Amino acid sequence: MATDTGPGATNDQPITTIVVVGGGTAGWLAACLIAARADRGVEQPLSVTLIESPDVATIGVGEGTWPTMRRTLERIGISETDFLLACDGAFKQGSRFDGWRTGAANDSYLHPFTAPVDGDPRDIVVAWAEHGGRFADTVGAQGAICHRDLAPRQRAMPDYAGTLNYAYHLDAGKLAAMLMRHATERLGVRHVRDHVVGIDGTADGDIAAVRTRASGAIAGDLFLDCTGHAALLIEGYYGIGTVDRGGTLFNDRALAVQVPVAADSPIASQTNATAHAAGWIWDIGLPMRRGVGCVYSSAHLSDDAAADTLTRYLRATAPDAALPSFRQLTFRSRHRETFWHRNCLAVGLSAGFLEPLEASAIVLIELSLDALLDNFPSHRGAMDIHSMRFNTLFRYRWDRIVEFLKLHYVLSERDEPYWRDHRDPASIPPRLAELLQLWRHQPPSRADFPMVDEIFPAASYQYVLYGMEFPAPTRGPIATPDRARTQTLLAQVDQRRRMLAAGLPTNRAYLDALRHATRHSHNLPCRKLGASGFLRPLQKPVRHSAAVTPLYGHPTHPSNGFLQFQVTFRISARNAAASPFHPACSSCLRRTGFYAALADRLERVCHATGQDVQDRDPASVRLRPRSRPCWSGLQKPRSAVACGTGSLR
């Protein structure tokens, strides 16, 4: 308790007990991150308790994430492989928008996660306008990778590393279940499955404890409200209201459906958002299914008409699939007036929700928790200062998200009433209207977004503006210092595009190989080279994987003209010491699908170098060991890497 009331007086009560009320993605992400980042060596370490009602079903807040999720999972201590397998995950490299400008067949643009080439935005935009074509394709290579349904990384790379920036598509229900297991089994989070029946307060207005039906009162120093739309603490107890954003963002309903896919079907590298007369349709590809949904404004489209719109889309994109029943969701675009009040912080849907156009739901959970933990109040006396800063920051962030979402609509030339209403100046936030006027004379830049931790950078606005064919400004009267360097970088985009297309696997090949390797990692019937040069059986099973990289320095063999490539085998450390090179046997490679992936990869190498694959028979693959093994410093403790060169006729 505070001992005086003069300037600088503080409440010295330490914050040691965190109570998370509510499960789902928000609750379990909160519990995992707090427990993982807590310092266990201090005198009074943090304890985390999560209370979850056994009768409240988890609401999946989304199936798309931002690249921030990679750092979040790494901090929690979950491997990327485990995450992808447990959550039926796939890679997301951006969002594609079809039909948003005019609705014509060729009306499409991409908002990729990888930023444009480094340079002054004025030089980049002018060069694009002179070059022509789609903006994302001119300023970066990721569009071509997405078009080919390729993964942003190879399996030999360390977890969470990639050649391109990426996030994930996932099953939100499975994500919450995985986080729950990790929190309770590895991070020491206490899990209470019980009903909240009341809240006890202190004399000065804090929450002292949450009363449960069977477990009694659960006391805490800081309470996180993760109870979803119910908002039991922030609204139910404190009465904190919301700011309605429906006058800017009209959508308030959605129809969702899950569509099974064939085992060998391509997996898209991006979220596809297809505009319709009164909203848009999301389409998210996962290994086992597609998640599809029709977002719409009930003021512009009836529920029956929305169902017809979704049905037509599914028949066009999945003609052979049986149409399951649709799940209807209702929502309002709104957020709290105050997110952190006294010792209660709202996270997830309790804090608010905006339509899912840019998948902001999960990233707002991550950003809220990062802001809490990066400036964690060690004592109660500092909490009000931290909460004030938090509220200022997140009001700014919610405002920027609203503006960025609105940007997608105000640039449209579609003539349906819904789209005309979006262009009504009365519905456009004043700051966005001011920026649109400014951007007719100069491209979006850091000067327009001065905060250190902006939620959307200037590059994101560039992708949307020029993807929607917003007029590019002409070169200004002030010279830019690095114009020649920018031109050089733009000229190198095509070369990088070809190299990436040749060296990256498809999403389907990557994820299928991941699942197969996990299932058979302990019983692969491989062989290794004996001293005499003949193959002999191994007494112990070997865990291995392989990656193929084209040798661009000398793409063809000098004597026979065969296309050259490099095959990298990854071998478990217990077997690596016995031989510098491990040629796996044909039966093993056929069983793991390696030959099929190799032929697919080499076909793309040939396409990139202007050559043809004359013979795809696996018997034509010839491997020649290098003189010594090649070690990867990051993975040496776990595995050895042995390399060889080979050719395919």
UniProtKB/TrEMBL annotation:
Transmembrane segments: none
InterPro entries referenced in this protein's UniProt entry, alphabetically: FAD/NAD-bd_sf (IPR036188), Flavin-dep_Halogenase_NPB (IPR050816), Flavin_halogenase (IPR006905)
Protein's UniProt name: Tryptophan halogenase (Modular protein)
Recorded superkingdom: Bacteria
SUPFAM superfamilies cross-referenced by the UniProt entry: FAD/NAD(P)-binding domain (SSF51905)
GO molecular function: monooxygenase activity
